[in-house]
Structure formats: C-alpha cells, structure tokens
Specification:
Layout (H helix, E strand, L loop, with lengths): L2 H17 L3 E4 L4 E5 L9 E6 L8 H10 L1 H13 L10 E5 L7 E6 L10 H18 L4 E4 L11 H17 L6 E6 L2 H10 L16
Parallel strand pairs: 2-7, 3-5, 3-6, 6-7
Antiparallel strand pairs: 1-2, 4-5
The structure holds adenosine-5'-diphosphate (ADP).
Adenosine-5'-diphosphate (ADP) binds next to helix 2.
Length: 214
C-alpha cells in the first residue's frame, strides 16, 4: 500500500474509533447528544435550520429537502402563500409533513444570523429551541431531533450556542410535556466535542453511552 493510501486508511480507522462512542445522555436520559445525520433520525419530528423563505437552502436545510422529497417543499410553499407571505421570522417555528423521511414531521425554524440582531442573538436562538419544542408538544409528539441551529452558515459560535441551546432544552423539559426524548445531533466530531465541553446540562457526571446501543 502506498504511503498516502496508508495514511488515508489509518485516518478512517482513527475517525471510526474516536467517534463510535461519542454519545452522551443528560437529564435522566431525556436528552441524547450524538454524532449523526439528522435526516436519518427515527423520531416523531426533526427540526430544520431553515431560512425565512422556507423554500430550501444549503446545509442541513438542503439535506432535509433532498432526503424528504417534494412533499415537504409543497407544504412550505402553501404555508408561505396562506400564513406567511413575508416569510418565517427569526426564532419562530412551523411544522410540515416529513415526506419520505423516517420522521413524521419537520419543524422548520429560522436561527439568528450571528452579529445581525443587535445583541439579541442568544434570545433568538433560545426561541428557536423553545418554539420548536412547543410545537412538537402541542401535537403531542414524544421525540424530536435538533441540528445545531445557526452554527453553520449563520456563524453562531459553537460554544456559545451550546450554552444557549442546552439551557433552552433543560428549561422546557422542566415543565409538564409530552416530549420524552430530545436528540441533539452533531454532524462533525469537532462540533459534538465543543458541545460536550460547553453545555449547561446539570448531570455532567451521567456516563457515556455506547453509540451502537441504539
Ligand atoms: P445555519 O444556517 O442555521 O447555520 P447550517 O445548515 O449552515 O444552518 O448549519 C447548521 C448545522 O447543521 C451545522 O453544524 C452543520 O454542520 C449541520 N449539518 C449539516 N448537514 C447536516 C445533517 N445532514 N445532519 C445534521 N446536521 C447537519
């Protein structure tokens, strides 16, 4: 094997072993934090980090529409036509069908663009999580998966976002709710690592869970 091929395969192996066990749970197992692709999550609803047009975009938005098919976009168009002619405001959320996805529903929310909200970014990011959870609970859903809203193209610093999102989820779960599982999905190992180092969930001591368990 050439040196380059060797380096490639050993990096694959390192990647596999460094990420295979990267899942942690918090709040008595009601929150699971893991590496993965949100489009494949088997939950009642997945959340889309959309933009205000609701008509698709890059990043996780593009991935969800590609995997979910045209039915999701059709419902987004209908929502724009009937309820939101000016688009979905930052921090708000709407729910559509899940098209071809394993998830029955997609909850679309618009995260803040970092540096464009006059210091109210944290409040807006928290509202994304709260409003998405509220919508899911209003439909009596039990499980929901979030991507790391605003930390891609919208430039929100990951450690700060981890503090905001974990506080918002923990606050919501303090109340009476139908939701028994919140998954926070990270696409890159480094994003997951920053989250694990920065979140504000209480029970840090709760052990690592083998990602292959479920
Ligand atoms: P935003 O515009 O809100 O920043 P992005 O889609 O650019 O949204 O990025 C949000 C996060 O979603 C980033 O951490 C990115 O790596 C992640 N992401 C991209 N594709 C997927 C996917 N298929 N599943 C889960 N997370 C994803």
């Amino acid at each position: 094997m050439s040196e380059r091929a060797n380096a490639f395969y050993s990096s694959l192996i390192t990647h596999h072993f460094s990420t295979a066990f990267m899942e942690e749970s918090f709040l008595d197992g009601r929150v699971r934090v893991l590496l993965g692709d949100i489009t494949g999550q088997n939950v009642d609803a997945i959340v889309n980090a959309a933009n205000s047009t609701l008509l698709g975009g890059g990043g996780v938005d593009g991935a969800i529409h590609r995997a979910g098919g045209a039915q999701i976009l059709e419902e987004c168009r209908e929502i724009r036509r009937t309820r939101l002619p000016d688009g979905l405001p930052t921090g708000e959320a709407v729910m559509t069908n899940g098209g071809l996805l394993a998830a029955r529903y997609v909850i679309h929310t618009v995260g803040p663009i970092y540096g464009r909200h006059g210091g109210r970014e944290a409040e807006q990011l928290a509202r994304c999580y709260q409003n998405s959870l509220r919508l899911a609970a209003e439909s009596n859903l039990a499980s929901i998966a979030f991507p790391s809203i605003s930390t891609g193209a919208f430039g929100y610093p990951r450690a700060e976002a981890a503090r905001v999102s974990s506080r918002a989820v923990a606050d919501f779960l303090k109340g009476e709710t139908s939701i028994s599982e919140v998954r926070l999905i990270f696409f890159q190992p480094s994003d997951l690592k920053v989250f694990i180092e920065s979140h504000k969930f209480d029970n840090r001591e709760q052990g690592k869970v083998d990602a292959s368990s479920g």
